[in-house]
Amino acid sequence: MSYRSLTILIVLMAVIMAGMFEPLSAGQGQRIPSVGSPTVRRSGANAAGDSTSVIAGQALNSDRTPLAFARVRLRNLDSGAVIEKTASDHLGEFSFLVVSRGNYVAELFDDTDRVVAVGEALTVEPGQTVGTLILLPARLPSFGALFGNSAGAIMSAAAGAGITAVTATGQPLSPEQ
Q1: Cα 164 from chain centroid?
Q2: How far apart are CA 47 and CA 49, in angstroms?
Q3: If you write DSSP's letter for every residue of 59-119 in order, what string do you get?
Q4: What does the mean pLDDT of the chain come to?
Q5: pLDDT on residue 51
Q6: Nearest to 69 by CA among 91, 88, 94
Q7: Cα separation of 85 and 71, whole Å?
Q8: d(CA 75, CA 120)
Q9: What's the rounded Cα separation, in Å, for the pair 167 and 113?
Q10: What is the mean pLDDT of the segment spanning 109-116?
Q11: For the segment 27-78, what is each residue's pLDDT rounded down to a tens digit?
């Protein structure tokens, strides 16, 4: 392979790789972060040209694939009030318009209004576009699921071995009152 062919191949690979990790577009030159960078802030007027702030983000599964049509709400951390609710699109993207400065957090919630994941706390100033990611945690089996039927299994095994009763022997470790 010639030096020129190798150079072209490297440039093509770089372009392809850059496309794979390109941050999602938030509209008119504004960008929200890729998976590697949790928060991006832009000062000054936003894409709309006014002092309204934009919080844009993406909801991701635990394997970092987009979480399509997830329920997302924006909470003001200063007052504790829910400001707005929305749903992510098919790419897991969502956005909120914010008219006042403050501290906010985006939350994923289920159909019973229970919070299942939270983004990082964001401080928003007028005119900023702020990006956030919400990563749904991996589901681990509960201890009840792991050990919930173990008492029944132990009793069945003991009965199968002919053990029908157990009597404690020896001195108790703690004094009786």
Answers
A1: 50
A2: 5
A3: EE-TTS-B-TT-EEEEEETTT--EEEEEE--TTSEEEEEE-S-EEEEEEEE-TTS-EEEE-
A4: 73
A5: 82
A6: 88
A7: 7
A8: 12
A9: 49
A10: 94
A11: 333 333 333 334 444 444 555 556 899 999 999 999 999 999 999 999 999 9
How many CA atoms lie less than 13 Å away from 45 in the CB half-sphere? 5
Residue with tokens 């150079």: 7
- CATH topology for 22-135 is Immunoglobulin-like (2.60.40)
The SS3 call for residue 135 is strand
Q: What are phi and psi of 16, to 5 degrees?
A: -65, -45
CB count within 10 Å of CB 170 equals: 5
Q: What is the pTM of this model?
A: 0.55
Q: From residue 106, give the alpha-carbon distance in Å to each of 19, 123, 154.
A: 27, 12, 46
Read off the tokens for 74: 């924006």
Rounded to 10 degrees, the C-alpha dihedral 40/108/99/26 comes to 40
Chain centre to alpha carbon of residue 145:
24
The closest alpha carbon to 119, from 46, 53, 58, 70, belongs to 58
Instruction: Provide the CA 151 distance to its chain's centre, in angstroms.
Output: 36
Q: Which helix (H) or strand (E) holds 156?
A: helix 150-160
List CB contacts of 22: < 8 A, sequence separation 6 or more: 34
